[in-house]
Amino acid sequence: MKAIRRFTVRPVLPEPLRPLSDLARNLRWSWHAETRELFQSVDPERWAASGGDPVRLLGSVPPTRLAELAEDRRFLRRLAAVEGDLHDYMTGDRWYQAQPDELPAAIAYFSPEFGVTAALPQYSGGLGILAGDHLKSASDLGVPLIGVGLLYRHGYFRQTLSRDGWQQEHYPVLDPNELPLVLLEEPDGTPAQVALALPGGKQLHARIWQAQVGRVPLLMLDSDVEENDFGERGVTDRLYGGGSEHRLLQEMLLGIGGVRAVRTYCRLTGHPGPEVFHTNEGHAGFLGLERIAELCADGLDFDSALEAVRAGTVFTTHTPVPAGIDRFDRELVARHFGPDAELPRIDVERILRLGIETYPGGEPNLFNMAVMGLRLAQRANGVSLLHGNVSREMFSGLWPGFDADEVPITSVTNGVHAPTWVAPEVFRLGARQIGVQRAEDALTVGGSDRWDAVADIPDQEIWELRRGLREQLVTEVRERLRASWRQRGAATAELGWIDGVLDPDVLTIGFARRVPSYKRLTLMLRDRDRLMDLLLHPERPVQIVVAGKAHPADDGGKRLVQELVRFADDPRVRHRIVFLPDYGMAMAQKLYPGCDIWLNNPLRPLEACGTSGMKAALNGCLNLSVLDGWWDEWFQPDFGWSIPTADGVATDPDHRDDIEAAALYDLLEQRVTPRFYERGRSGLPDRWLEMVRQTLSLLGPKVLAGRMVREYVERLYSPAALAHRSMDPDTARGLAQWKGRVRAEWPGVTVDHVETSASEALAELGTTLGLRVRVGLGGLGPDDVDVQVVSGRVDEEDRIGDATIVPLKPVGSPERDGRWVYEGALSLDRTGPFGYTVRILPAHRLLASSAELGLVAGPSEELVEAAGLLMR
């Protein structure tokens, strides 16, 4: 019989065991080994059955066992020690508290997904895992972050395979009462709520659940509440599910409702209000509109409120392709804002102008969430050096007249939370070398350029560690493979072959990620005969573990999964290559440490960063990757291999895949497998172990999320907080009025005449030229602009590269016709073809970048032609 109603019955813990409840509700247990070991000792079998989830564990332990533990002095001593450690962690000063006072009192960090632990399945892939690692590292560093997301009642999806290898999706219902969450409540005990106005007089209500991620609260909005109609209850049903309006409502709830949730949380708890708002990808961009509405309600006009909001906003873009950005029909957006819906006091046209693609090549009828994110944030970044370059090119239309390298988008390369992803065995090896506390600090705070202590670990210990981790992976793979085949309909009697799948002494390659086409899951299958030869080589075999989910609506991705699965089902190779369904955090934590090689072969430059290889590297796994994302930035032959790419524009995709697959096979055959199997005098693979050592000592400190979060604090959060503090209402009004005046007068800003002391087109290195420039400033004055000479080597088309910028100074008063004269010196500091030009930019002390307004004035075509070689 099926129950008509479901309850969650929580255990009543004996008084001495009450701290277990607090320990279970703080997700620090997910990266703190002693806490997990304590829970495991409560009941090892039930701990395994719960998937390592303390909340589920405590809900299943019999009262008799709890009574035993309440009398167990040894257990209670361990409990007191772990409880005391958490108290010290939560209350003591950390890295952030030792920094200068001007740092922000609080930062709100918005993301559509968070991958904190497998026990809270609210992520689909790299964006969510990155967001979870950001929260955890902020906690370790003491950064006063507040996370904001949605609580999806079905999460992303669970993946199984049909008998013929087709991906199947399952959406188990998540009960928040069975998750490590607490409901945020008003002082009278009623659930705290936020509400959004919808067209037609309806409302969208949401409760606020809180997950405690160490020191960081994570607020998650849940629309499945009784006050909503059926349609509105389903707004937070699935991550990245539903049609366009469904996604728009999710993003309005995340951005607008998220700001309201933060205000509610701060009111109820006394937490300082955020001075900086960080938008992790465009999905949360509407948060800026809500903050503008707040300031308008306090008496500011829209333009002034926009300046105040921009000052304290940071926007991070994660996509290197326009197709990866959410875009909505402008009519759909217009229907959900204005007098009959949300933010009724703000003119809908002002809202639309923030997101409409008004630049060349844009779609003026589409509302672009990333474009809005950039227009609402004074500071923006990509997630690797290469991705920063790609982003500046991709969004350069928002800053017409500027070279791509001047587009105000910087980069902070992603990192990973080492305590989450480093295998306990790897940590223990490091702790034996330098001590537990120093090892913890090295993994969390970071700050050193290299981990020199790795050099002192004997080769034998490293090799034994790596083999032990490989052996654990083999056991894990066989268990998961057996479960997968049973789900596919196989009988137990058919599965005896699984006991021979993988070998702990064979070179093991890992490939696991989402399955969009650009990540090329099946590149390894381009030449199946060569792959089979690699897998079955008599002296130097390889084995491959593959995992990944295709988006439920992506049939092309599902076909790639099926193609890989069918190859792995072949009885000739199924002991050497496996596909594991339902890739997630729990699987990943076994997979990264157990592999010897982490393979990554995206189409360059479509991988914004790609952090899975970082997690593998922290465990001594070597990377074999296309030079894309973070690998393009940090690759060295000392600790991995780069797969050559066929980047020629004339190369068709199939031919490109053939070339790059052949390069991959060549590397594996000629360089990777010989190095793994080659033995030195000690009987160990000396050259391989040296690469493992270099990976740990040189890559390890770079790939830490602690390094990443410190960069965000120092380069983005701190400047944003200072800008926010300077933007009082009068200052915001003044800046908005100045920008309005500059935009109105800019058509009258001109470069009219340029004179130089050079009389010929040839000059000697070291020569200094005098420049005299006449400019028109319209109704503006010298205080409103910078007049600059831009110089450097020129190419065949007279484009200036590696430019040097020198400001020119006004001389005296304006001439009778209102023109101003500027003078300065130009040093010819490079040989070869050399050129310069003159330009005028808006200038104000509160601008974060001279390109901020997207305005620039330069010499006319006629003036350029008249100037000769040096002006080209």
Automatic annotation (TrEMBL):
<dbReference type="InterPro" id="IPR011834">
    <property type="entry name" value="Agluc_phsphrylas"/>
</dbReference>
<protein>
    <recommendedName>
        <fullName>glycogen phosphorylase</fullName>
        <ecNumber>2.4.1.1</ecNumber>
    </recommendedName>
</protein>
<keyword id="KW-0808">Transferase</keyword>
<feature type="domain" description="DUF3417">
    <location>
        <begin position="13"/>
        <end position="120"/>
    </location>
</feature>
<dbReference type="Pfam" id="PF00343">
    <property type="entry name" value="Phosphorylase"/>
</dbReference>
<dbReference type="InterPro" id="IPR000811">
    <property type="entry name" value="Glyco_trans_35"/>
</dbReference>
<dbReference type="InterPro" id="IPR052182">
    <property type="entry name" value="Glycogen/Maltodextrin_Phosph"/>
</dbReference>
<comment type="similarity">
    <text>Belongs to the glycogen phosphorylase family.</text>
</comment>
<dbReference type="InterPro" id="IPR024517">
    <property type="entry name" value="Glycogen_phosphorylase_DUF3417"/>
</dbReference>
<keyword id="KW-0663">Pyridoxal phosphate</keyword>
<keyword id="KW-0328">Glycosyltransferase</keyword>
<keyword id="KW-0119">Carbohydrate metabolism</keyword>
<dbReference type="InterPro" id="IPR035090">
    <property type="entry name" value="Pyridoxal_P_attach_site"/>
</dbReference>
<comment type="function">
    <text>Phosphorylase is an important allosteric enzyme in carbohydrate metabolism. Enzymes from different sources differ in their regulatory mechanisms and in their natural substrates. However, all known phosphorylases share catalytic and structural properties.</text>
</comment>
<keyword id="KW-0021">Allosteric enzyme</keyword>
<dbReference type="Pfam" id="PF11897">
    <property type="entry name" value="DUF3417"/>
</dbReference>
